Amino acid sequence: MTFLDKYQPQLLSLLRIVAGLLFLEHGTQKILGFPAMTMAVPPEAATMIMVAGYIELIGGALILLGLFSRIAAFICSGEMAVAYWMVHVPKGGPFPVLNGGDAAILFCFVFLYIAAAGPGPIAANQR
After folding, report:
1. How far is C-alpha 54 from the geometric centre of its chain's CA atoms?
2. Cα(33)–Cα(29) distance, rounded to whole angstroms?
3. Average of pLDDT values for 51-59?
4. Distance (Å, rounded) from C-alpha 20 to C-alpha 66?
5. N or C: more exposed end of the chain, with fewer CB within 10 A?
């Protein structure tokens, strides 16, 4: 037993809160324009960006709060898998260091873990 074992449930909640907050920020950028995006959105991608933004905004908020976090995390994980293969792989092949998809992969698997493990003890609900 390591000294961190006794804090495992609380650390799961902390992981969920931090990941949700970071994901929420991506949603506020796309939907609310804050912080400002550094790249222009091509017109043909505007609908896809808006859908992604709402998933990130709503899903990130639900994950942050620990409210319906399992289903929200599962949906957000799927969004990140789609984003990686549709947006990042065409930019630089399958290597995240070349295509800028590191965050998409991390979000995908962190959210998949949260969907399986649950929100932890510090959450609005335990579903």
Report:
1. 12
2. 5
3. 98
4. 9
5. N
Name the DSSP letter for residue 95: -
Question: Amino acid letter at 96?
Answer: P
Per the prediction, the chain carries an average pLDDT of 94
Which string of DSSP letters, residue by residue, matches 9-55? Answer: HHHHHHHHHHHHHHHHHHHHHHHT--SPPSSPPPGGGHHHHHHHHHH
Q: What is the pLDDT of residue 44?
A: 83
Give CA–CA dist 127/116, Å, rounded: 11
Q: What is the DSSP letter of 122?
A: S
Q: Where are the domains of the chain?
A: 8-117
pTM here is 0.93
